[in-house]
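Email to the structure team, subject: Aspartate aminotransferase family protein model.

Hi all, the expression group asked for a predicted structure before they design truncation constructs. Nothing fancy, just the tokens so they can compare against earlier work. One-line instruction: predict Aspartate aminotransferase family protein, return tokens.
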Amino acid sequence: MNESSLPRPNNLDAFWMPFSDNRYFKANPRMIGRAEGMSYYTPEGREILDGTAGLWCCNAGHGRREIKEAIQKQAAILDYAPTFQLGHPIAFEAAARIAEMTPEGMDKVFFTNSGSESADTALKIALAYHKARGESSRVRLIGRERGYHGVGFGGMSVGGIGGNRKQFGALLPYVDHLPHTHGLKENLFAKGQPEQGAHLADALENLVALHGAETIAAVMVEPVAGSTGVLVPPKGYLQRLREICDKYGILLIFDEVITGFGRLGTNFGAERLGVVPDIMTMAKGLTNAAVPMGAVAVKNGVFDAIVNGAPAGIELFHGYTYSGHPLAAAAAIATLELHRAEDLPGRARALEPYWQEAAHSLRAAPHVVDIRDCGLIAGIELVSRPGAAGARAMEVFRRCFDDGVLIRVTGDIIALSPPLICEKPHVDRIMGTIDKAIRAAA
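Reply from the structure team: attached below.
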């Protein structure tokens, strides 16, 4: 064997890391070697308590034997099969399991491989729906400031995080945005849904007046915005969006990639927040992140308009090589069985009051300007250092990791979302470590 082809241990050069400060990391690497239960472990064996369920996705905890064995078994039976004009049984079973959990009347499931693909798929389905109904003028897509819908061109265009957009030009045409719901003084340090701000949904009426209802295809929002720093919808806000969408024949899309599969103490955020969308995206917790998989669920009427109303042949010219991948489908079935058998939503509901009080106990820490929570999610917002936005929270992130707790930061906001198997001692350790790190970074 040529020496140049030998493995090169600890070579960090080749991997261009996503959403990372590559230069800093490769000079100061923090590595994860394995995971089990509530914790990661470094290659040296040091425990890192997971306060973020990976990236909002390992809801059942790490290293679950049931999921691992399902993947291994499926790999020995059928490693891959296409789903273009063909099928394999396990994909249909996985779709049926999802349909049992979605809101009533949302029984059709389209498989993707990630939340980003789910977002773009949902937007394309919305456009196809209106075209199938003879309303081809409905091409405009409405998102929300500070919304995150992945990194595909559709989701990024409808999304409203400036840092994710500024390198890539104009993106899709015919897109507009609602204002975000964050920052009202009356809502600072709110526990659960804040009281003020339902009126912000009325901005959709302004966009209808500006563009014409006949041009608007869909509105996409997260029930609780996660990646932008945990923005919890004010009471009545989503209900008002639903009313306006119904009034003008606009489809309402919920991005449930983070809020799905127990994170808010219910199967989906739609259930917790009392609003049923027309289209719902999901990923992350669907397979406990063991194999990449996403999905889009739609109301039966949306499916019927596109599929049953089409001429013979392909009804929707969209899909992915790995849609319904056998290993991912096996992981999804095993994950959803754990979800049911262990009542992960119920565990989240039971822990939520303790989680809420623990998160809000950090109000006394220096530079904390707001704390928000819903289900087993919390956001802790810090004052930015002058001329160095994000630096304070990043220092807290690094200190927490070095002290044995994984958190996530976005700007100067600490975002928390532990696995749903979390217990009170884990909560105490997470919040205590954060409190110490905030004080050290003051």
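The radius of gyration is 22 Å. The chain is about 35% helix and 15% strand. Ping us if the truncation boundaries need rechecking.
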